[in-house]
Amino acid sequence: MEGFYQMDNPWKKGLNRAISDAAWNELILKLEYLAAKLRVRFV
């Protein structure tokens, strides 16, 4: 069980990357929404 929780597991690296990508996508969606609401251009 010790090796299961090591930080260098490939599945954990992929999971962390997926979470990070999802967080960035959520931030961009919120910024686009606010820009549209305020009628400003989001680049």
Strand content: under 5%
| Rounded radius of gyration (Å) | 17 Å
The major sheet is characterized as: none
Roughly how many Å apart are the termini? Answer: 47 Å
> What are the secondary-structure elements, in order, as H or E?
H
The helix tally amounts to 1
Total count of strands? 0
Q: Which percent range fits the helix content?
A: 55-70%
Structural class computed from helices and strand pairing = mainly alpha
Q: What's the shape?
A: rod-shaped
- Give the rounded overall mean pLDDT: 82
Q: Which regions contain 5 or more consecutive residues with pLDDT less than 50?
A: none
Report on the architecture of this protein.
- The protein has 43 residues and is mainly alpha-helical.
- Helix content is 67%, strand content 0%.
- It contains 1 helix and no strands.
- The chain has one helix spanning 10-38.
- The protein is rod-shaped, with a radius of gyration of 17 Å.
- The termini are far apart.
- It comes from Microseira wollei NIES-4236.
- This is Transposase.
Give descriptors for this structure.
mainly alpha, single chain, 43 residues
Give a brief outline of the structure:
This is Transposase. By secondary structure, the chain is mainly alpha-helical. The chain has one helix at residues 10-38.
What layout of secondary structure does this protein have?
Elements: H1 10-38
